[in-house]
Structure formats: structure tokens, C-alpha cells
Design brief:
Helices cover 63% and strands 2% of the residues. It is mainly α and 458 residues long. Helix 2 (22-41) runs parallel beside helix 6 and helix 5 packs parallel to helix 8 (141-156).
């Protein structure tokens, strides 16, 4: 009898552990079904002109871009190049979405959150229709979200941060920065949050070195191609566009070489539109807009220093769009939510598209909706959408968790706020840019539960 009991106890424990996670397992399975429905409902995948095709072209011909697209996402596309299938790209991204939800759940359970709290924190990412659409498009955002959440998971997994974990997190945040450059300031935020926790100089050094060395290597590669040590050739252009909503050259008094970038009367409905507006002052200069990146950055810095309150006011105003109940188009030409529709959308007639079809996937074609799967998603999206005020509540819960247990919650809450404000501060508000905020904010909010702390119970 004693022998039987000893044999049975481990099996009983395993069953108890599985039972403890059965609710989340059911949710994860349901989320996987939704992603299969998405792939069946919209064929082949959503391709955006010109972002998707620039990524795909860079995957075939790897080189550092002088515009908005660093190399991180094209490297994923290149890894999938032997299969010559953009539908496989979407499938991998849907899997990354599920993996991100699993990471959120695992970290919160590791931090002693009840099962329902951890499952609730993962639910917006798993079930919001906006994430289904995002994962189904050839865009860098899904990879970016996964890398940021994975970096936080590594840092938060154990109460006693090891040097190895700090280095691993640094590599993940470096990969995130090479996927979307908005992660560059996130690395600094992470270092500051860990410094507040007093994790020790060795761990901070490991994080900084692991985070900066890949970036330095990429910057050196960039210099070989473009003649300057940098990660991007568009940061100045983006910041210049941000200042076009408030810049007053009578107050800035720029020198003659910068005065050419003053507002010239061209009006658009969002700061980001100045990057592309043909009549904007930057685009009237000779050559490509990105060849004037350094000049644009100098003008933008002068404008911000001369009008700091105007700059902050416009950043606050545009950030507030995220909290509206009814999604506000910004700019007006965009669809901020509920983008699943019926129909067929042809690709534009562009030489780059023909090149990508020859070199990456011959089956690339315009997007078509397929009934009844698309019909279901069109109805589903109106219920499965996180309204702005709910995002505000989630961020508020994260702030509460930060006050209660700063050693645990400060890190994800600071990253969530950085992801929310950062894109607006350096360019403009975009509903797509808000999506990475949601899972990180949910992670911080889950830590507000009284049971959460530094002790692991997984």
C-alpha cells in the first residue's frame, strides 16, 4: 500500500497542476480556433503598400534601410523565404500571438496571481479582433510585441535576477529595437527601472552590454551602406513631422539652413502625414526626404526647445485619442477599428510588387474575403474590441500595482507607458501603435491582485 501511494502521489500532483490551468488551456484553444478562422476568412494575407513589400524585398536582399524599417522583421521573413509563402508568414505570426498570451499567463502565475487573473490579463491579446488583423498582415508589430513581452518575462521570472537572465533580456530588447526603433528608449526605461530595484551593477552591466552590442553592430553595418553610424535614417524626419503641428518660426528663429523646414502653409490632418505630403517644406527640398534627416532633426530639436509647452500639449492631446470610446480615425484616411470587411482588394500596379512576387512568393495576390469565415469575423469584431476607457482602467490598475509593489510592477507599467507615449512623442498617434501597449499594461495590471508578490507558486 505504501508503495502504491508513493507512485500515485506524483501523478495526482500532475493532474492537479493540469486542472489548475484548464481554464487558460480552454481559452488558448479557442484563441487558436479564431486564428484558423482568420486564415480561412481572408486569403492569402493582408499586404500593405508599401510597408509589406519593402519588408519582403529586404528579406530577399538584406541591407540596412535608410527609412523607417530596420532589419529585425526582414530577418524573420528571410528565415521563412525557402517556403515562398506569405500565408506561412501569417501562420507563424498567429503562433507568436498565442505564444505571447502564454507568456503573459505564465509570468503572472509565476508571480502568484490566481488563474482567473492571469487568464484575464492574456484575454485581450488572445481575443481582440485587432490582434487577429495585426497578426494576419505582413507587418513587424506581432514580432515586436512578442520580443518585448519575452524580454519582460525573462526579467520577471525569478525574484532574484541572474546575470544570465539580464543578458538574455538585453538581447531580446535589442532584437525588439531592430524590429521597431521605438524600443530604443525602452531599453533605457528597463535599465532605469532595474536600477531603482538595485539589482546590482553586474546585472545592469550584462543587460546594457547585451542590449547595446547588437545595436552597435547593426549601426556599423548601417555606416558601411549609408556613411553614418546610426540605427535609422528617418528619426529626424519623424520628429520634424511631429513639430509641424505647432512650430512657429517667429519664436524658433532658426538659422537660414533650417528655416527652409519651417511650416509653409501646407495643412494635413495628422502629424505623420507631413512625412508624405508633397507640399510640405521638407519634401520641397532637392533630393529624397530622408537625405535631409540630420537637418530635419536639428530643426525639430530647436522647435521643441523653443516651444516645450506646445510640444507637450500636442503629445498629450494625441495620446488621449487612445482613450476614446468610439475609435477616432487619425489620420482621417485610416480605419481605426472594425477593419474586417467583405470584398476583394487588388494590389496596386507597382514594379516592387512584381519583383517581390518573382523573388519571395509567386502566389502573392490581392486580399479576398471568404464566407462564412469572414462573415463571422465581421460580426465578431464589434464585440471583441478593447474600448479606450477600458485601456485607461487597465493602466490605472497597473499604476496601483506599481504603488503597492514597485519592485515587481514598476517595470511592466513603465514599459507600457513608454509604448503609449513614445510613438506620439517622436512622430504621431496611430491606433496600430497602441496595440503593443495592451499586453504589457495587462501584465502590470494583473500584479495589482493582493496575492501577487515576489514568491513563485508555479
Amino acid at each position: 500500500m505504501l508503495t502504491d501511494t508513493r507512485v500515485a502521489l506524483p501523478a495526482q500532483r500532475r493532474l492537479a497542476v493540469l486542472a489548475d490551468h484548464r481554464v487558460f488551456a480552454a481559452l488558448l484553444a479557442l484563441a487558436a480556433v479564431l486564428r484558423v478562422v482568420t486564415m480561412l476568412g481572408y486569403r492569402p494575407v493582408t499586404l500593405y503598400w508599401y510597408d509589406s513589400f519593402t519588408y519582403l524585398d529586404t528579406a530577399v536582399h538584406p541591407a540596412p534601410s535608410a527609412t523607417f524599417h530596420p532589419i529585425g522583421y526582414p530577418l524573420l521573413l528571410r528565415a521563412l523565404l525557402p517556403f515562398h509563402s506569405v500565408e506561412l508568414v501569417a501562420a507563424v505570426q498567429h503562433a507568436l500571438g498565442l505564444g505571447t498570451g502564454l507568456l503573459l499567463y505564465a509570468v503572472l502565475r509565476r508571480r502568484s496571481a490566481p488563474g482567473w487573473v492571469a487568464a484575464s490579463a492574456a484575454a485581450p491579446l488572445l481575443f481582440d479582433a485587432s490582434f487577429l488583423r495585426l497578426e494576419h498582415g505582413v507587418l513587424s508589430d506581432t514580432q515586436f510585441i512578442f520580443l518585448v513581452v519575452a524580454g519582460l518575462a525573462v526579467l520577471m521570472w525569478s525574484p532574484a535576477l541572474s546575470v544570465r537572465a539580464a543578458a538574455g533580456a538585453g538581447l531580446l530588447f535589442a532584437a525588439a529595437a531592430l524590429t521597431r526603433t521605438i524600443a530604443l528608449p525602452l531599453l533605457l526605461l528597463v535599465v532605469l527601472a532595474l536600477a531603482v530595484r538595485r539589482v546590482g551593477w553586474r546585472r545592469l552591466a550584462a543587460l546594457v552590454l547585451a542590449g547595446t552590442l547588437p545595436l552597435a553592430g547593426y549601426a556599423a553595418w548601417y555606416a558601411q551602406h549609408h556613411g553614418r553610424f546610426a540605427i535609422s535614417g528617418a528619426d529626424g524626419v519623424a520628429l520634424w513631422a511631429r513639430t509641424m503641428t505647432f512650430a512657429d518660426c517667429a519664436r524658433i528663429q532658426p538659422p537660414p539652413d533650417l528655416a527652409r523646414l519651417c511650416p509653409n502653409g501646407t495643412k494635413v490632418d495628422a502629424a505623420s502625414e507631413y512625412v508624405w505630403a508633397p507640399g510640405a517644406s521638407l519634401n520641397l527640398l532637392p533630393g529624397d526626404r530622408f537625405t535631409h534627416n540630420d537637418l530635419a532633426r536639428s530643426f525639430a530639436i530647436d522647435a521643441i526647445l523653443a516651444q516645450p509647452l506646445d510640444y507637450l500639449g500636442h503629445v498629450v492631446r494625441d495620446t488621449a485619442i487612445a482613450f476614446s470610446w468610439t475609435p477616432i480615425p487619425h489620420p482621417d484616411r485610416t480605419t481605426p477599428a472594425f477593419g474586417f470587411r467583405s470584398g476583394h482588394w487588388e494590389l496596386p500596379d507597382q514594379p516592387l510588387i512584381d519583383k517581390v512576387k518573382r523573388e519571395y512568393d509567386p502566389d502573392i495576390r490581392g486580399l479576398s474575403s471568404v464566407s462564412p469565415y469572414a462573415d463571422f469575423l465581421i460580426a465578431y469584431q464589434y464585440a471583441a474590441y478593447l474600448r479606450g476607457p477600458f485601456l485607461g482602467v487597465i493602466l490605472l490598475l497597473g499604476a496601483v500595482a506599481t504603488v503597492r509593489r514597485p519592485r515587481v510592477a514598476l517595470l511592466p507599467w513603465a514599459v507600457a507607458m513608454g509604448l503609449l507615449i513614445g510613438p506620439v512623442a517622436v512622430l504621431d498617434f496611430d491606433h496600430r501603435y497602441v496595440l503593443p501597449v495592451i499586453p504589457v499594461a495587462c501584465l502590470a495590471a494583473g500584479l495589482a491582485h493582493p496575492r501577487c508578490g515576489i514568491r513563485s507558486q508555479m
